[in-house]
Design goal:
This protein is mainly alpha-helical. It has eleven helices and no strands.
């Protein structure tokens, strides 16, 4: 096991364990407001300080890990599944089906990613559900292109031609023989995509269209601390560092898996 993979697993695993054990290890209620403890710097009582409502920053970061990890996981899962199915069908069937699906991908790629997401969320309304739907509608195109490219190569491989010669159905050849051998690139890419989803989720929350206050979420925490940056730097620094560290962990896992599988992103 490479050091890069170990370091990535430690970072992501550390946040995951903290999220699971949040009710036990968090020193305070993440939404409890203490007027007497407003904007206090890091101390023994509050290691990461408090915000403008007197809420403990460390507790909010620990509970916020639950939301941000959930966004990263769900925001990757549905695009991966949708893109894999569409890409496999496009590459295997070919012809008019492939042409139509590829033009659909071209249309989606013609719009800036974040702008298209913001438009969908604005139509559906703020919230995590809208974020997941927007990710599913926009994020699948990268996976579809990866899988399609692999299927176009593998469907002419000897074992695929042999499976067809033996009379296996097209569905069996695709889902039992071709697809399992073509998903390695997508699995590696989904680790890097988790970084994009995490940053997009934080950006959406920062703009007020994602997770809604008083829920603890790192993007919201950065937005709330922006007005106090000159006098209370800790309000934005610690949740911002958490976003960077978790994204870095996912990136290192993706790099290590790519090297191990011989996949180049």
């Amino acid at each position: 096991m490479s050091r890069t993979l170990i370091a990535g697993l430690v970072l992501v695993g550390g946040f995951a364990l903290a999220a699971l054990a949040a009710p036990v290890i968090a020193p305070y209620d993440p939404i409890f407001q203490d007027g007497a403890a407003r904007i206090q710097p890091p101390s023994l009582a509050h290691p990461f300080g408090t915000d403008n409502f007197g809420r403990d920053i460390l507790s909010r970061i620990i509970f916020g890990a639950r939301v941000d990890l959930q966004m990263a996981a769900i925001g990757v899962f549905f695009p991966l599944v949708i893109g894999t199915v569409i890409g496999a069908i496009a590459g295997f069937v070919g012809g008019i089906v492939d042409a139509v699906l590829m033009r659909l991908i071209d249309i989606i790629l013609a719009f800036p990613f974040l702008v298209l997401m913001l438009s969908i969320i604005a139509i559906l309304g703020p919230g995590l559900s809208s974020f997941y739907i927007a990710m599913a509608l926009v994020g699948w195109v990268s996976y579809a292109r990866l899988i399609r490219a692999q299927i176009l190569v593998l469907k002419n491989a000897d074992y695929a031609v042999a499976a067809v010669s033996l009379g296996f159905s097209r569905t069996r050849v695709l889902f039992r023989h071709l697809l399992p051998n073509s998903v390695a690139g997508s699995l590696v890419f989904c680790m890097s995509d988790a970084v994009l989803v995490l940053l997009s989720g934080a950006a959406i929350s920062y703009l007020g269209l994602g997770v809604q206050p008083p829920t603890a979420e790192w993007g919201i925490m950065v937005a709330e601390g922006q007005a106090f940056l000159s006098q209370a730097w800790w309000i934005t620094l610690f949740p911002g560092l958490s976003i960077v560290l978790l994204a870095f962990g996912f990136s290192m896992i993706g790099d290590a898996l790519g090297e191990a599988m011989g996949v180049h992103e």
